[in-house]
Amino acid sequence: MTVATVSPTVLARPSGGYAMLAVDQREALRAMFAAHQSQPVTDEQITAFKVAAARALSPYASAILVDKQFGWDAVIAQEAVAAECALIAAADRFTASATEFVADVAIDDDVDPAAVRAQGAKALKLLVLWRPDEDPAPRIALVTDFVRRCRENGLVSIIEPVSRAPRQGGAFDHDAGILAAARELGSLGADLYKAEVPTAGQGTPAEIVAGCSRLSESIAGPWVVLSSGVPAELFPDAVRLACQAGASGFLAGRAIWASVVGSPTMADDLRTISVDRLRRLCDVVDDAVSR
């Protein structure tokens, strides 16, 4: 059976820009909660946050990314996502190490593309670790397999290559890794590419634009930025500059909701502080893509 190809625009705003929310963080989110409490952070606590964030923020996002491990089933069962917000399922399985929450990534076979599509998913997302001291062949094979699975099931494919230090340590140029990953993986057929912001959004505007322009030259299709590593107060400008250089929006979580994690008024803060941040970012995207 041939499944119709789905355009990534199903994840976009009416403006054509992407203003997508990520709540697929896993052990990193547990660590964020642990910084604010003495008792162990339970799986149920993580799930409850994801449901609350989806309920508060999805009415303002063009799409929302949710993980199977802690969020997907609860978000679906509790109908926490606004009808106008597209669903993205994280299709990556993480393996931790002594120093990294995510040391290795594989496609999660517990995420059945046909099943999540039946539940309303429009896309799948795969994190890919790019390390300068590792053979590129397994990364290329991983992305190629992922794109094939998405196409066979009528789902948009989103890849998220992130630049990581060498496995054995040593000198490391993070920005060089961002660009090298785009050159290696940006033309393998993924419908949407999710990239780190060059300089983590802390360079000059000219430096950020130059870095994003190089990404645009290397990625064969639309791409968006993520917010991990970028100070929340700098992320709106980073999105604006990235769009100026060819990006089409963002798929981000931390810049929107990280500051309210562990707050005694977290539910209210999601509806006020986080909603305000997301709405501002939506305005930035709409303005940038209309120019």
UniProtKB/TrEMBL annotation:
Pfam families recorded: DeoC (PF01791)
SMART domains cross-referenced by the UniProt entry: DeoC (SM01133)
UniProt keyword annotations, A-Z: Lyase
Gene3D superfamilies, per the entry: Aldolase class I (3.20.20.70)
Annotated family: Belongs to the aldolase LacD family.
PANTHER family named among the record's database cross-references: SULFOFRUCTOSEPHOSPHATE ALDOLASE
Name of the protein this chain belongs to: Sulfofructosephosphate aldolase
Organism listed in the record: Micromonospora reichwaldensis
